[in-house]
Each structure stands twice: as structure tokens, then as C-alpha cells.
Amino acid sequence: MYRPPLPRLLCAALLILLLAPAAASALPRANPVPGGVALVAIEAPGATAPKAWYRERRIMVLPDGTSSGRWFAVVGIALDAEPGTHRVESELADGRRETLEFLVVSKEYASQHITLKDTRKVTPPPEDLARIRDETPRIKAALRHWSDSDLVQTGFILPVEGVVSGNFGLRRFYNDQPRSPHSGLDIAAPAGTPVQAPAAGTVVETGDFFFNGNSVFLDHGQGLVTMYAHMQEIRVRPGERVRQGDMLGLVGSTGRATGPHLHWGVSLNDARVNPELFLPETTAKKPE
Questions:
Q1: How does pLDDT run across 231-285, given as a tens digit for each residue?
Q2: Which of 17, 32, 35, 213 lies 20 to 30 angstroms, CA to CA, from 116?
Q3: Quick check: 104 and 173 in contact, CB under 8 A?
Q4: C-alpha span between 125 and 128 (Å, rounded)
Q5: Domain endpoint, select from 104, 128, 146
Q6: Where in the sequence is the domain holding 42, given as residue range(s)?
Q7: Which tens digit of pLDDT belongs to each residue from 16-45?
């Protein structure tokens, strides 16, 4: 694995800290770790937003909230990203291109062991595997959805009040069998509790999926998609536009769940990132 020399690492780390000024409060909080978000500054005078790409995928670009001509590439970093120097390609309105670097810092996530009585949800039989294969392309397409938008609301509110029962990034074991890291935030709440949109968006997919149960996917623009799983009931339809605070459905325990809760996921440029970075502060109660 490539490791840049120490002086360059220190410079990159300082750059990341400087790229999140207090004035840009609408931007997600920078935390350049696997499963986090990096804010990379692009100097582009004028009102036309530059374009940017990371790992050959288009990424979000937002203004810094001042008249300085500075924009930010908002980069979602996948959970399996290697620590070290990463690169963003930018293109200004006049066609000029530039390569910008940022540092991804390593992070170790905790483990969680979950016991399920329904062993089908741990080792699905052939008929369930066929259903999962049919559902997977729909889920992937929703999570990587891109729509151009100049008005992206990245200042989120919590989709449901409750207790955090599963933190983002946990290395999960179901009945002692290792599975993919936890790609969202679990918030436990009584069945039937309303689930609200944390920000304005458009419903791009809904459905009852094998693992995720009743789920809704919201497109917020520029590669920012949020997911709401295990719901008891869905109250929106694909193509519907919702405002911040509108009801999406009700908390439930459908799919692979041990009790009523909401799995809330955030996908940014098709990378699953920590939803808490989009909150001004986490108001859900932490586990005791």
C-alpha cells in the first residue's frame, strides 16, 4: 500500500481541517476516514459551479456560502477505502482541469455480534437467494442515483427520535458469521413512530426487500441519496417530491431486524457514509 512521506501527510491533514470553515455550516462535517466525508476546496471565480470527479465518478460540488469564489468538492469515502493520499479531478467553467489531493486517515470500527432466530436471514436458502439477486440491482441503482441540482439541502434533521442501537461502520457478525460492515445508523423507536425526511428530496425507489424490509430511497441531488429501512409502512411513492420533515413511513421491524427500529443510510457518490456527519449535532440518545 502506498504511503506518502510524513511532511506531505501532515500538510494534507492540515488542509482538510482548513477546508471546513464555520461559515459553511450547511456543508456536512468533514471527517476524511473510511466511511466519512472530505471537503476539498476548488478555487473557481464566478457563479458557475465547477465539476469534479473522484474514482471516475461525478461528485457533489457546493459553494462555501461566501462571495470568495471558493467551492467545495464534497467527497464520500467508502468504508473499504485505503488510508493515504486520494485525488479529485476538477474542471472549471472555462475547461481548465486540475488534480487536487486529500488525505484519508485510517479508522478502526468496533464489532457487534447479533443473534437471529430466523436463520434464513443469516444463510438464505436458494429461493431467497433468487429473490435477493432480483432485488440487488434496484437497490444499487437507487444508491448510485445522480441528478443535477443547484439546491442541495445537506443540513439534515433526524428522521426519527429514538435510541441509537447500532452505530455506523460496525463490523457485524450474525450468529457468529461475519457479514458486511454496518452501512447506516440504527435508531430504535416504538413500532408506528413516524419517519420524517431529514431534508428535501425526491423518492427514487420504494419496496419490500429481503434484508431491508419496507424501504424508501430519497434523492437529494448531486449523488446524495438517503435510505430508510425496516419500516412497518411506507407512506410515499416513487417520483414524489418531499420537503424536510414530511412523513416517509412508520418505524417497524420488517426484513432482517431483531426489533422495531429505523436503519438510516446515507450514500454519497455511491459510498456509504456516516449519517451523523450531516447533522449539526446528534440528538438521538446514545446507548447506555
A1: 999 999 999 999 999 999 999 999 988 899 999 999 999 999 999 999 986 554 4
A2: 35
A3: no
A4: 5
A5: 104
A6: 6-104
A7: 333 333 333 478 999 999 999 999 999 887
